[in-house]
Write a structure and sequence with these properties.
The protein has helices at residues 15-26, 46-52, 54-61, 69-74, 124-131, 147-180, 183-196, 208-215, 221-235, 249-266, 273-282, 290-303, 306-309, 316-330, 360-370, 377-391, 398-412, 425-438, 442-457, 463-472, and strands at residues 8-10, 31-34, 37-39, 66-67, 82-87, 91-95, 98-104, 113-116, 119-121, 348-349, 352-353. By secondary structure, it is an alpha+beta fold. Helix 9 (221-235) packs antiparallel against helix 16. The termini are far apart.
């Protein structure tokens, strides 16, 4: 017979519930696990039961305590089986398989977040400060992690959120330190951050990874070779001048609508033109497709902003900042995709593995530095799109942001933006893959040149006329249904 009781049952001050628990214990359906906690399990060890129910038990017995010090970073019991917490009093509880060690300290702060009901975990800023405080070895272990662990967490913030994100982290840590009188810990943290950002000597750093970052960011060497190959091929070519024909606001908006429509369609976000119009112009959201609607609306918001699209980066940090901010707008409706934050886990498309997360910053910066060798706006646009696509710096939205960064180079130079219509999707992806896999750039360059010629042929002055041109040239059809009809000039 299946046991109908929950695995964990808590003692109660209610006399009726307490009596019921006593009866179940007498019947052998419950047994004591630890004080004030019972279990219905008769199979697993007490240690195993406590391990899988650890957070709920702590939350019930000790509401509003905080997982702190090394536990805030490791999240699980330490190698010695200790869980470090902060509460109102110092105390130690030994349970099967785990020992709770409470320190007396500050209560929950606004950015400490709940992990289960009334159990909180220290924010990363608070935990960093706690772990940089002096700590004695007790029972064979310190309650703090090695400094190298803190450095690597800070490095992850820098890699995913940039210098602005790391500096925001520093600002919040300073506020916490001032409020709790932890200035000594903050002074050490501040020195570490400055060393990682290369504004202080690196000799304070303990982590080999952080030390290497302070001396110069690592990057994907093989991708840099591929970028250099593309630049060399682009420098040998001359491209026609294709001045934009979207000089008035309406024309720019019409072109941007279809630019956004097709850029999302390529990525699988498929709407009819009418649905897209309702979403973009009338703020309508399709039931069960809120994320998709946000995607196309966010893409349009960037594409239709002529002033914003005219901005191109002046230096490497500016490049990363623009990239993150534009991605944040596109993916605003998908917080689970971490808008504006570089990936923390590797990503791939089919058999293609993109740049490793710890190499994203360095590879983007080195790739951008190489771009100075290109002066032609179209060549720069081609290169920019491939750079972003090849690094794939975000969890999602990489294709859209790559095409936006490409078109920004063209808008800045007052050249016609590029639309990649649905019917041209396979040509686009195939030639992109050939450049990645076979280092064959000729097809990739020709493909983008052809679709740029097509985009320049389109007349966006009237929405209806532009749509008719797109329909008559097979733009809305799938690749297997037809081919794109390109202008002959």
């Amino acid at each position: 017979m299946i046991n109908q009781l929950p695995e964990i049952v808590y003692g109660s001050k209610d006399a009726k519930i307490s009596k019921k628990i006593s009866d179940l214990v007498k019947l052998g359906k419950l047994r004591p696990l630890i004080p004030r906690v019972y279990t219905s399990s008769s199979i697993d060890t007490d240690a195993a039961i406590i391990k899988r129910n650890l957070h709920p038990i702590i939350a019930h017995l000790f509401p509003n305590v905080i997982l702190s010090h090394r536990t805030a970073l490791e999240y699980n019991p330490s190698p010695k089986g200790f869980v470090y917490l902060t509460g109102k009093n110092r105390r130690v509880y030994q349970w099967p398989g785990v020992t709770l060690k409470f320190s007396k300290g500050p209560s929950v702060l606004p950015d400490d977040y709940p992990v289960y009901d009334k159990l909180f975990v220290a924010s990363l800023e608070r935990a960093a400060l706690e772990n940089l405080m002096p700590s004695r070895t007790i029972d064979g272990e310190k309650r703090t992690v090695n400094q190298a662990i803190i450095e690597e967490r800070l490095l992850m913030i820098l890699n995913t959120r940039g210098e602005e994100g790391l500096n925001n982290f520093r600002i919040r840590a300073r506020e916490i330190a001032e409020a709790l009188d932890w200035q000594k810990a903050f002074k050490k943290l501040n020195h570490i951050i400055s060393s990682i950002l290369s504004t202080n000597p690196a000799n304070i750093l303990k982590s080999p990874i952080a030390t290497a970052r302070a001396l110069g960011e690592p990057y994907d060497v093989h991708r840099l070779e591929l970028f250099q190959l593309l630049i060399a091929d682009l420098r040998q070519l001359t491209f026609p001048d294709r001045p934009w024909n979207t000089t008035n606001k309406d024309a720019f908006a019409h072109f941007s609508f279809f630019e956004s429509f097709f850029s999302n369609y390529i990525e699988g976000t498929k709407f009819s033109v009418e649905e897209a119009e309702e979403i973009i112009y009338n703020n309508m959201f399709i039931p069960n497709r809120t994320g998709d609607a946000h995607d196309i609306k966010g893409t349009y918001k960037i594409c239709a902003d002529k002033s914003g699209m005219s901005r191109i980066p002046n230096n490497m940090e500016d490049f990363l900042t623009i990239l993150r901010k534009r991605h944040q707008v596109i993916m605003k409706g998908r917080p689970d995709k971490l808008p504006g934050i570089f990936k923390e886990q590797p990503n791939r498309a089919g058999s293609t593995f993109f740049v490793e997360p710890n190499l994203v910053n360095g590879t983007l910066k080195q790739g951008f530095k190489l771009m100075s060798g290109l002066t032609d706006a179209f060549a720069r646009a081609i290169y920019m799109m491939f750079l972003i696509s090849e690094v794939h710096p975000f969890n999602d939205g990489n294709g859209r942001i790559a095409r936006i960064m490409m078109n920004a180079e063209l808008v800045h130079a007052r050249q016609t933006k590029i639309i990649i219509p649905t019917v041209y999707r396979e040509d686009y992806l195939l030639n992109l893959k050939k450049l990645t896999k076979k280092h064959y750039s000729t097809g990739f360059i020709r493909m983008l040149d052809a679709v740029a010629r097509y985009s320049h042929w389109l007349d966006p002055k009237a929405f209806g006329y532009l749509r008719m041109q797109l329909e008559q040239s097979n733009a809305f059809k799938e690749s297997e249904e037809a081919a794109l009809i390109l202008p002959r000039y």
